[in-house]
Every structure is written in structure tokens, then in C-alpha cells.
Amino acid sequence: LKTALEAHDRAACGQVAPPDGLFLTGVDYPVETSPDRL
């Protein structure tokens, strides 16, 4: 993954899943990074 990101080229990722039907369902952050604690 690091190599693909550093390449700035999606082709460097190799085979990927099709984007059809993918969506973000939520994001979890560690408690210590909560805005209430910053």
C-alpha cells in the first residue's frame, strides 16, 4: 500500500474492487484524539 500511495498512480495498486455500491458507513477515532480532549 505504501508503494502504491508513494507512486501517485492507481495502477500501482494492482487489482482493486469495483467502486459500485461502496460507501462510508462510519469513522471511529481513538478517544485521545476526540475534539473534546484537544
Summarize the structure in words:
The chain is built from one helix and no strands. With 38 residues, it is an all-alpha fold. It has one domain (2-37). The longest helix has 6 residues, at 2-7.
Strand and helix map with partners:
Elements: H1 2-7
What are the main properties of this structure?
flat; 1 helix; 16% helix; 38 residues; mainly alpha
Question: How many DSSP-defined strands?
Answer: 0
Work out the helicity level: 10-25%
Largest sheet report: none
| SS-derived structural category | mainly alpha
Number of helices: 1
Distance between the termini: 30 Å
List the uncertain runs: none
What count of structural domains? 1
The average pLDDT score comes to: 82
Kindly estimate the percentage of residues that lie in beta strands according to DSSP. Answer: under 5%
Round the Cα radius of gyration to an integer and report it.
Answer: 16 Å
Q: In one word, what is the shape? A: flat
